Structures are given as C-alpha cells and as structure tokens.
Amino acid sequence: MNRASDSSKTLVLPELIVGSLVLLTLLIELCFVPLDVESIKAHAFINPLHLLLALLVWVQCGMLTVQLVQTLLQHDRPARSTLLQFGLSALCSVTMAGTVFMLIPPGFCWLSLGLSLVSGFMSAFGLSALIGDRLMRPSTARRSSGSSVLIYFCFMIGLVLISALILISPGACSAPVSFIDACFMCASAASNTGLTTVNVADNFTWLGRTVLLIDFEIGAMGIMTFTYFVLLMVGRRLATRDSMTVSSILDHDEVSTVPALIRTVICVTLLIELIGAVGLYFSWLGNPVVPQDTARLIGFAIFHSVSAFCNSGLTLFPDNMATSGMAEAYVSQGVLMLMAFSGMLGFGVYLECLTRMKRRMSHRRNPLRWSTHAWLVTRVTLIITLVGTIILALLGIFEPNSQNQGIAETCWDALWNNVGRCCGTDRSNLEDYGPVYKITLVVLMFIGGNPAGTGGGVYAPVFAICVMEVCRVLRGERDLTLYSRCIARATVDKAVVTVVLGFMWVTGSTMIIMLLEPQFAAGPNGFLDTTFLVTSAFGTSGYSYFDISDFSTVSKLFLSVTMIFGRLGMFTTMLLFIKPRDPSPIRYPETKLPLT
C-alpha cells in the first residue's frame, strides 16, 4: 500500500517526465555517439550530450529524494517501489558524478549507463501508464478479449518499430542495414523465431545485439507480462481486467494472485537464464571460437543462454552452431538443449511445481493434485521428444542424403533438431538431408511448444487433443476423457479450430510466398522449401537452410506478420478480425448430413 503524502505526489509527474527524458537522452547518445572500450578509457565519452544526461539523472535523483523526505516527515512508510527507484537513481547519480569528474575509473561508465537505462525504462512505463489511465478513465471498464488482443498486437508492433529505429542507427550497426531488414530482425527476435536476413555477428555492434536480446526476452516473457511487471515495480496497481488478461496468458485461474504470479515468472526466467549462462561460460573456457577475455565471454554466455531459453535461435557465430569449433562443443550444446527445452515446457508447469514444493515444505498432508494441464504438457512433450528423435535418427541413417556423419553424430543431430524445433539454431546443414526428413521437421515445427512457454506453433497439447478427439469419434465415445477428467467441449472445439486455422494459414502463406518469390519457388524443391520456410516462421522455429536476404520487401513484411501471428497464436489472432458473439438463447432442431 502506497502511503506517500499528497505533497510528495505533486512531484510524481515531473519526476516521470524527467526520467523519460533520461531514457531518450541515453538512447540518442548510444545510437549516435561511438562508445567502446578505448573511447571510455580515454574519457572521450564526456561530451555535451553526456553532461545533459548526467544533469537529468541528478535532477531526477533530487526529485525522488524530496519525495522520500516528505513521506518520512509525514511519518508514513515509503512504498517499496519508491525505495527501489530512489536506490537506483542514487547509485546512478553517484557513478555518473564519479565518471564525469574523473573520481572513479572510467569503466564505471558502463554501470552508470546501465542504471540510467533501467531507471529511464521504469519512468517511461510509469508515465505511459499514467497517461493511459487519464485517457481511458471516461471509457467503460469492460474490456473485451478482442481489445486485449489488439493492445497486445499494438505493443508488439510498437516494440518492433522502436527497436528497428535503434538498429539502423550508427551506434547499433557496424554495416549499413535497411529499415525493412531491421524490422524483420526485430520481428524475428520479438516473436522468438530466429529467421534472419542479415548476420547478427557481422552487422551489429554490442548495442544492436543488446536490442535484439531485449526484444526476445520481452517476447518470451510476453509483452503484457513484462509491461505489468515494470508497472508493479514502479508502484502501479493492476486493474481487474489487466489481471484477467495476464491470468489468461499464463493459464492461471486465480486472478487475485496475478501480481505474485508475474514476479514469480520473472524470477524463474532470470534464475534459469543465469544458470544457463554459468554453464555456457565454463563450457566455453578455452574454446578459440569464443572470445576469451572475461567481459566478452560473459556477454556471449548471457546472450546465448537467454536466446536458448527464449527459443529465439539467434547466435553470435557466423554459421550458428555449425561453425567450426562449435559443432564439436557437445557440453555447451547439451546446456543449450536443456535451456531450449526448459523454455518450451512453459511457465504453467513451473508455477505448479513451485506451488507443490511450497505445500510440501509447509508439511501439509494433502498436497495439490497435479492439474490436467501439467499432466498433459509433460507427457506429450516427452512423447514428441522421444518419438520425433527416433524418427529423425532413423531417417538420417537410412534415407539417402548428403550428410557424411556417423550413427552417433546423426542421432545427436536428430535430438538437437527435435528439441530445437522451436529454437531453430542450426547445428548442421539441413539442406543435406532428404525430403522426408525435412517434412518430419515441418510437422514438428507446426506442432511447436506449449502454452505459456517460449515456443510457437499450434502447441503440443492442442495437437494432442485433436488427435485424441479423432480417436474418440472413431471409437464412438461420448466424451473426451483424460486423467480421470472430461475435457470441456469448448476446449476441444478451440483446439480443433486452432489446428485448422494454423494449417490454413501455412497453406495460404506458402502459396503467397511462391507467388511473390517465383525464382525461389522454381528451385528443385521449391514447394518443400517454401513450406519449410513458412512453417518455420509460423511455428517461430527459425530453422532455415536458404538465404532470404534477397527477398522482396513485401515478402519480408509478410513473413514478419506471420512470425508475429505465430507467436500470438492463430485463435488469438482471429479475435483481431472476428468479434465473439454472446451465445444465442435460441436452439434450432438438429439435422444430419451425409458425410460418407
């Protein structure tokens, strides 16, 4: 509960404006002023723009200090969000003053810039929420599911456009990148796909790579989840409609616990990514392909750990994991596979595991029963992983192909390609495999990951429900039962519609790309290659064995939309165009039609 006095609240809006100006000034400096290790060592970063940034940081810190003092004078307890913002701003002000006046080593400039970025983001989100509350106050409190989807879609488009503008700046790219390619790269990162039109390692500086990392981190957590987390950090409360939106995204029933749920999702994500980064750091020690200076090695480990967990498929190696020296790094590949599998499994399973652990630690005699969702997700994911790996391994061994690998290497490649069906990081040249192998990968990419996870596709539980529904109809059973539970008819209908819409979108998109890119479609395996590409985009997989950098602007934009729709889900996407109707009280007599 925020008990700040009314007098301190008068400084909230000016402080948010100043904090947003800090973010804007920082982005301008990063995009247009060259910052590297040598320039920072020579104090070349101290320029009028940096001095303006320092001044804004000090002003913001002063405003937060006044708010905190006024709250204490009123004998009120400061909110945790106020203390957090004050701590960030104070530390940023101290490091900024130390570097500007050369009182501390210039390397602390990176710390001050990072703190300024975090503080500025929090202020910008707080200002956006404040403006949004003022604008939406006269509107009705009821928000339809279609409007929530529209907000999510607009957030995604806004993230892509803002990130693309940063990517084309001189500070973010080491080689010229067109705005369309920048939009494509940002859409690929935000949707956790991994398709690329430019090489990340060769074309982007540390700033460009950081922008892509932020994009696929936000895309994996969910833009709405990330936004609400930042709003909670700045002391904003979630409206009931917002809590219902997040609970729907994370497949959670208790709306009252959504704030704690959001914090848990963020903490679990960061913890898993930290563990993965540590594993990659030690597995890459001594590997000549990876820079061995401590700072860059840590950066490589963090980037690839986050990329793997988010199933984004982007790497900093010229030929992904097929790069000479990385294709033989089996320990790091095992870490990356575990990270990709962890992200694909879904937050819902982790949250249920944490709930059961808490109940056991509190010595409750009756721990919660595993939900049908967790039961279905874990079993279907393991079955698809096992069966898919066996099929790919057999095809890799017995189907004629151009691969020159042993049996063990082929089996390892099959496991990598199956687990990475949502990640899309190439370990070998997929073009060398036979057509049946590629068709199997198309099916796996179409199935994808799990709800509330970082993967895409129609989702494994949805596909499993459709298969079980077919079996139910063939057996003539009345209800679809699973784990001593009857699956709701609405759930089954939604699963069938999701698969049908996904199949229709992939089919239609394949034909559109073949019309837009006749030279690509006229290749020896044009239809299969186009289907593979479109399914990779729709399933947010990122697998690709062809160069799409010379595609037309329309094709790149269409694939970008496909990636975003694939991340949203086709059923959710259709709510943008079709408004759900209330059930009609009139029920007409049934009739039968001949189907055979």
TrEMBL record:
Name of this chain's protein: Potassium transporter
Lineage: Bacteria, Pseudomonadati, Verrucomicrobiota, Verrucomicrobiia, Verrucomicrobiales
Record membrane topology: Multi-pass membrane protein
Protein's cellular compartments: Cell membrane
GO molecular function: monoatomic cation transmembrane transporter activity
Single GO BP term: metal ion transport
rRNA processing is among the record's keywords: no
Keywords on record: Cell membrane, Ion transport, Membrane, Transmembrane, Transmembrane helix, Transport
Source organism of this protein record: Candidatus Akkermansia intestinigallinarum
Gene Ontology cellular-component terms listed: plasma membrane
Keyword Mitochondrion: no
Coiled coil: none
Pfam families: TrkH
Major location category of this protein: membrane
Residue intervals passing through the bilayer: 12-35, 47-69, 81-104, 110-130, 150-172, 178-200, 212-234, 260-285, 297-317, 329-353, 374-398, 456-474, 495-516, 557-578
InterPro entries membership: Cat_transpt
